[in-house]
């Protein structure tokens, strides 16, 4: 079996850390009573005991992170030579001693109970189900722990997949339930020793057209961009993988410090992680670096440029590499009938938090709709798969745009009549520190 894992890494040191982390954990737990995969009502898993999924893929029980004397209930890969924790129940309520148990109550609630004090430091949230007759808990080979009533596994009353920690496993839903408002997001561990919620979250921003974002506290630090039917707009070379199921982990304070997102494959035969694909997170991935109507070009010097037809809003700041004010139109729009749109290719689509969309409209109708609304600044297909479909509209400033050398998205930006049709294609050469890079970039020529 091969598991494909995508992790934010602190370079090579982190890989070593993973190994160190796991090895210590493995040796710290000597006695494992691998029983069955289920937990019946009133049954308790004690500190030294675990349950294991049918095909022995996952194991559930108590564990302590390396360098920590605290105990947690978690789920980890059973077959690994070291422990990779994928879920933590009481990340927020650590246990300081080992006279503890995990019990499924007759009401179908999972409780961590302190045997000495009788306290319940952690409990699964109440289900909406009012009357439970005969609950069972089961650890599945997907890594999901479900609680179901009277054998009805298809409709669990509670499941760990609804409460992700920092790991996205295949089959897990990620995002927001728009009906109940319930959100499933990944939140990093506070540190290697502490699984409590850290500052970084990986989540789906559902204001406007949905887009994946990474937040650091209240601030967006990275925007993966909207799903364009094939891939996230901000990961041009990182499409869905049909061969491997993947695990996406984010770690606290590590995504931007060294700027690499790596994708690892776990090979059972070799018992090791192998680097499968690496995505460089570069300066242009810093959210909104170039301000409204600016675009980031990692091959440019400086990296920020104004989109064609725009000029720096604050030229002095701009020259000093403070691009936060972004750009403004050289010639203002008047919303007259001669206005139109210029086509920009190979872009990361702008922030969609103030966008509007309709998934069935055609591109022609999309243009009409944008043109008929004076505050609409850009449009494109929401789905580029096949011949393209759907309509995505932006209003006001276009934020967090960057250019890619390939696999970027197309955007149509509103322009005054005098600026129309100035688009052209040209070759782009640059000498990298180590190698000569030649690519074709489809951008508008700069008028200087
Ligand atoms: C555990 O502590 C030791 C000594 O301070 C340190 O070398 C090691 O990196 C720590 N391990 C983790 C996973 O933080
Ligand atoms: C765990 O099991 C081992 C071996 O049976 C035993 O020595 C140890 O005391 C147990 N620890 C706890 C906390 O129950
Ligand atoms: C942590 O636990 C406290 C109560 O013990 C709760 O109020 C809080 O919402 C929890 N935080 C998270 C992030 O789960
Ligand atoms: C669970 O539901 C019961 C009855 O509705 C309520 O009294 C209790 O406070 C709830 N517990 C939690 C943790 O929400
Ligand atoms: C969020 O951004 C504001 C403004 O840039 C900054 O002052 C604040 O420190 C940031 N907060 C975090 C947690 O980075
Ligand atoms: C991937 O997931 C599918 C169903 O979600 C499962 O049938 C398949 O066995 C998984 N593949 C691997 C390699 O785990
Ligand atoms: C989307 O556009 C189609 C075709 O123009 C229209 O029939 C439909 O009502 C629109 N849906 C929404 C939610 O606006
Ligand atoms: C233009 O679009 C904005 C944002 O969706 C909306 O609030 C406004 O009512 C629209 N104006 C017209 C004239 O349709
Ligand atoms: C995108 O378009 C393709 C091809 O027309 C279609 O199969 C797919 O369902 C569409 N995706 C969405 C999310 O509408």
Provide key terms for this protein.
disordered N terminus; 2 domains; eight-stranded mixed beta sheet; single chain; 448 residues; five-stranded mixed beta sheet; Agglutinin, subunit A; 3 helices; binds 2-acetamido-2-deoxy-beta-D-glucopyranose; mainly beta; disordered C terminus
Write up what this structure looks like.
This protein has an eight-stranded mixed sheet with strand order 26-25-33-29-34-31-32-30, with helices on one face. The chain has a five-stranded mixed sheet with strand order 15-22-1-23-24, with no helix packed on it. It has a five-stranded mixed sheet with strand order 2-5-6-7-8, with no helix packed on it. The chain folds into two domains: 2-283, Agglutinin, subunit A (Orthogonal Prism); 287-440, no CATH class. The protein has helices spanning 11-28, 315-319, 363-371; strands at 2-8, 33-34, 38-40, 44-46, 49-52, 58-63, 72-77, 85-88, 100-104, 110-114, 122-123, 135-139, 145-149, 158-159, 167-168, 175-176, 183-184, 186-191, 194-205, 211-216, 219-226, 245-249, 260-267, 272-280, 294-296, 304-306, 310-312, 327-329, 340-348, 356-358, 376-380, 391-395, 401-403, 409-415, 426-431, 436-441. It has 448 residues and is mainly beta. It binds 2-acetamido-2-deoxy-beta-D-glucopyranose (9 copies).
